[in-house]
Amino acid sequence: MITGTMQEKPRTAVGRPGGTAVAGPVRSGPGKRPTIEDVAALAGVSRGTVSRVLNGGVHVRPGMLARVNEAVETLGFSVNHAARALASGRTGSVAFVISERDEHLFSDPNFGLFVRIFTRELRKHGQHLLVTTAHDYEEEAFLGDYLTAGHVDGALFALPYEGEALLDRVARSGLPLVVQGRPIGHEEELSWVAPDEEASAFEAVRYLLRQGRRRVGTITGPLNTSSGRGRLAGYRRALGDAYSRSLVAEGDWSARSGLLAARKLLSRAPDLDGLFVHSDLMALQALTVLREAGRRVPEDVAVVGFDDSVAATMADPPLTTVHQPLERSAVESVRVLNELISGATSVPQHVVLATRLVRRRSA
Amino acid sequence: MITGTMQEKPRTAVGRPGGTAVAGPVRSGPGKRPTIEDVAALAGVSRGTVSRVLNGGVHVRPGMLARVNEAVETLGFSVNHAARALASGRTGSVAFVISERDEHLFSDPNFGLFVRIFTRELRKHGQHLLVTTAHDYEEEAFLGDYLTAGHVDGALFALPYEGEALLDRVARSGLPLVVQGRPIGHEEELSWVAPDEEASAFEAVRYLLRQGRRRVGTITGPLNTSSGRGRLAGYRRALGDAYSRSLVAEGDWSARSGLLAARKLLSRAPDLDGLFVHSDLMALQALTVLREAGRRVPEDVAVVGFDDSVAATMADPPLTTVHQPLERSAVESVRVLNELISGATSVPQHVVLATRLVRRRSA
DNA sequence: GTGAAAGCGCTAACAG
DNA sequence: CTGTTAGCGCTTTCAC
Prior knowledge:
With 363 residues, the first copy, chain A, is of the alpha/beta class. Helices cover 43% and strands 18% of the residues of chain A. Chain A has 3 domains: 7-79, 434 Repressor (Amino-terminal Domain) (Orthogonal Bundle), CATH 1.10.260; 90-195 and 327-353, 3-Layer(aba) Sandwich (Rossmann fold); 197-325, Response regulator (Rossmann fold, 3-Layer(aba) Sandwich), CATH 3.40.50.
């Protein structure tokens, strides 16, 4: 229930008529940014020399260098990006492209990690990271305009779903790009970095089987993603003849879907004694369902999750789960992207990273 | 405990030697993007006409327009951003600047909402949103380079903490900018959009007092943010003579800090019968602490949170909380920013938005 | 309406 | 090492 508006005036907009101006460096003209020419004039050198100083100062006498830097300082000069990009053909920035039809990614703790590592790695090459998003078809087209207009030297794509139109378009434009995760339908012609989903799942399920579990179910991620599919494939290979459709329930990474899937599984296979869940978040829900159904974990049902998230350590019981080398993944992505940008490599690169099983109490 | 590496090979990098080339539009030269000149030649018109078509097609005969568009299509042409920006002085993009020393913001559900609304609003003006971040001092300086180099026409700053150096620098560069939340120390000279923190807190606490609560405590946000300070000020004003330092505990928005603060408060003031918490997340922890201490909510202690987050509805009992008009806030920010960019306004704008108390079961 | 031409501010190749 | 110069691709007057 809502009590109503606390404050009657819906908005107060207050312009400040006089007031102190924001302090700033000396400007040559009113509202005009100083150019490299202004710096050259003040330092008493040529435009070329200033440019050299700006680009690392190689082949410049220390004396000149100091004078130029001083002029830059007093003028408050900073390079005009557009001019530099036009002349050099390089922009010095890279986009992290997130096409999120749902809002999954922003609440994903991995997302922040990726941004952090990307930023750090790119900075080593003097590159800036721009996070760009699209939430629907129109925005996707608009973002496509941006990416193909030469704003960036390359793009890092977040885990795509099958048939993502934006990925197609940008790939066709020739912009160097690296995908996080296997891009279904583009495994060959695009570069990507991904954990070994199939092997991870295979090992996780084998681990359960070796403990004598005979009825091992699985709650999958969405099957239009390579993660969901790859993990299901590994599960299936590990189970072999013991595989049965009734042991599989599809989730969509969300907590709610995990809850529903666990219930479905339990009703279809009441003799379930093992469970491999494609994400920790869904696994946590499964734990709740199992408890409510009176099953002990791991005594009655052993559970393995995926992600090695913080939540996994705090679960009751703490979750045995698959750890992905996310940092490594981000680092490799930037490395590959820069090889593509520099032209050091022209063929698509595919990097598969090993995972490891983190054993805790749930299995 | 970690069982070890699942897969021996740490990485598999597979280049694709032959393979099919990525399909793409016709290119004039090898690796060269078509220019406006190529389009002009193909359409049999001048460069100027093509430019006009590209910029809305006003003052161009329909026939020409169609021919040019056709040429654009067959060439797969898209404008070179750098050249356009250099010639026009406008970039068509706006940065959302997030200087997050801790990782708070990315896990904040509000963050995704801001990105979504900003993107939507900017698109109405043909502008792109770039999310940019800095995690430490060096990255902040690097981001400052980016923002002051003319990459963007303006910047939207996420809720800043006191004395944020980046904000200072960018403000001094003259780049149009709007801050989300009152920027402490720059209230006058910068433009900002913020909820009425003081009034919100005042009303929330008065609501508790009107119920006959006499010992109302508060768990604050960090007191180096305007939110924390403003809400504390409103609390204090509402309490009047009943105010006491022992009723105040500072948190930092994190769940853990809420837990600790609630415990501290309860031990310092065992007769507590009301609690105003500056965020729902911290309030949820307080509920747990109160329950563990054997206090019933709301019978023994009435609790009011802040944010009206999803978690508030699912709390036990559902949380009475202050709803902020985040969407409105984002919309206003973009509006003000564009007034600044276009020059329609040259004085700083200050927008204060009303909030409303959402009454549920906890108070 | 349309074409021609003058830059936007910078880099990079070339002399010296 | 440093100055000179020719563009980078586009917008935007200015004539016609």
